Each structure stands twice: as C-alpha cells, then as structure tokens.
Amino acid sequence: MNHGASKGLIAGVALGSCFAVITFVVFFVLYIRDRENLKIEKFLEDYRALKPTRFSYSDIRRITHQFSEKLGEGGYGIVYKGKLSKEINVAVKVLNNSKGNGEEFVNEVGTIGRIHHVNVVRLIGFCAEGFRRALVYEFLPNDSLEKFIFQAERNSLGWEKLHHIALGIAKGIEYLHQGCDQRILHFDIKPHNILLDHNLNPKVCDFGLAKLCSKEQSAVTMTAARGTMGYIAPEVLSRTFGKVSYKSDVYSFGMLLLEMVGGRKNVDERLNTSQVYFPQWIYKNLNVGEDIWARIEEAEGGNIAKKLSIVGLWCIQWHPSDRPSMKRVVQMLEGDEDNLTMPPNPFPDTNAANSIAGINGRRYQTELPLIIELE
C-alpha cells in the first residue's frame, strides 16, 4: 500500500469514528428526551382523574393572545395574563425548557392540582406537549405581597389588613401541613409567593420546590437544600440544627411575618454586613421592653405589630423542636396579644445568624454533601 493510500485510510477511519461518536451523542440526547417525556406522560395519565383541564400549546397561545401581556418572570418561567372567556382571567406560567427533568412541572401539578383552599392558589389546568409546558392558574389582580410590604403600597394596607393577610397565610400553610391526605411541605414561603385577590385575601402559590410526605413522618429525606436565602430554615442548610420537617416552613413563615412588620427584607445584599440583623434587632428591643412601635400612632396598630413580632420570633427559633406548629401559630394570631409570652432568644450564635443573613436572597437549590437522612 502506498503512502497516499495509507493516509487516506487513516483519514477515513478517523472520519468514521467521529461520525459514530456524533451519532451516538445525538441518539443519546433523543433517548433522554423521550424518556423524560414518557415520564411526564405517565404522570399525567395517572393524574387525569383529578380533573384539571389539559390544554394544547395552541390553546395556551390563544388564551394569552400570543403571550402579549407579561405579568412577571422567575427562575422557572414567565407568567402571562390570559383569558379563558370574557369573564374569566387567568395567569399562565410558561416553564423554561432548559430545566430538563420536569420536576417543577410535576411538583406543581401533583400538589396544587388536587387541593382546594381559600388561601391556596387554584390550578385551573396545564399544558404538556413535549418540552412545551405551562400551568394555568386563577388570576389574582393585586399581584404579590412583596409589592405591598416593600414598596409604597404598604401604606395603603394598615395594620388590621396586615394581620388579616398574616392569618390567611398561616391558615393556608396549616392546611398544606394538616388538611390534605398527604402533608405538603412548601419549602419556598416568602412574600413573592403570596398572591392577593381583589379583596387582598392571600393565597399561597409556587409549589415547584414542594415535597409530599405522610403525616406520620417526622422528617423528610433531602440531598439538596431548597428555598430562598433569608427564608431557609437552618436545618435545611445544615443537619446539625435538626431534621428537615414541616417546621422548616414554620421558620420561613416567621421570617415573612417579621418582614411584614418591618417593611424591609430580612436579607438585603445592598446593605453592608456591619448593619444589625433585623430580626435580632426586633428581639433585642422587645426583650428589654422598649417601645419600638412609637412610630405607630394607632394603639391597636401597635398591638398588632407586637403580636406579629412575637409570633414571628417564636417561628424562627433556631432548633425545629422549639418552633410551634402552624395550627398553634393560627391560634396565636387569632388570640389576644396579652396572652403571648416572649420566646427564648432565637439567636444563640450571632456569627451563625449573621452568616445566613449575609447570603443574598436568590432562590436556592444546590447539592449539599453528606446530608442524606433515613426516613
């Protein structure tokens, strides 16, 4: 064989090998996609009896008028306003294609689709065509609680309405923990995930990070921390503080309550780290008996602010066993402020508190090693 033929043979073999590798990769990607779509379809087949409407993607385009009115955007998708009819408005969340494993979709449909409560947002239907997935919810005209407690609209609420909203959120979470066949742990309770209807009644939404467990189960298995920094319970980040359970949602609710009182975020990456951690500041001033509500002119408003603060501080106790259940939280919010006792100091380790406070408030779901637990 001459030199030229030898070089040609080698080039042909290399080219053939390259083509084989590319073919393998293409078929592997298609296999993964088909397997995922089959998983989603099997889930939806099992779920059909629960009756949320299944829309086609062309239905979604029609309902949203070709995605013409954007309501908001998050890490998992874009929300558009739509119409089912002249009388019925809806909010349509179109999920990002890049998320791949469909967990957000299955979590939302598998949890929220089967429950109905006045303080939990209602899922009307869904779309699943290959990697085009969308969720259709009831439309709530007043947007999220975040807009009302961190911006100028806060002044329009008043303390009575803030108390009403706090109680409604607590009842919604208590229903998730105790009112369903299986306990639903939300894992992302925060103002952005509380929507308000035309009467400012609150509804818990966004179940993309939720987990289901039996009511008898004292802890859940997790190999990844999930939630938004500033609201994540200590035990979700490190098992040295205890086991992950429904008490993790209680902690997040407590942080939300303190934000409602203060009108500012517990974690704000714009602040320098030398500033006092806001929940710690509330505890210090309440504990020494100072009138930190002097700025509140109405006496009843001061009582409500103090009640929300005390309940919030009970909820953010460092160890899960020291936090009340959501049923007890509802009772505390419905009861008289004078009957509430001050909780223990929830900040035994200042450095630990500040380290959590110093992390920014982005949604968080990352792998953590060596935190697998037995159920």
TrEMBL record:
Coiled coil segments of this chain: none
Location in or out of the cell: Membrane
**One function term, GO molecular function aspect:** ATP binding
What the entry lists under Pfam families is as follows: Pkinase (PF00069)
For the keyword Nucleus, the answer is no
Sorted alphabetically, the keyword list is: ATP-binding, Glycoprotein, Hydrolase, Kinase, Membrane, Nucleotide-binding, Serine/threonine-protein kinase, Signal, Transferase, Transmembrane, Transmembrane helix
TM spans, by residue? 12-32
Tell me its family: Belongs to the protein kinase superfamily.
- Protein name stated in the entry: Serine/threonine protein kinase
Gene source species: Handroanthus impetiginosus
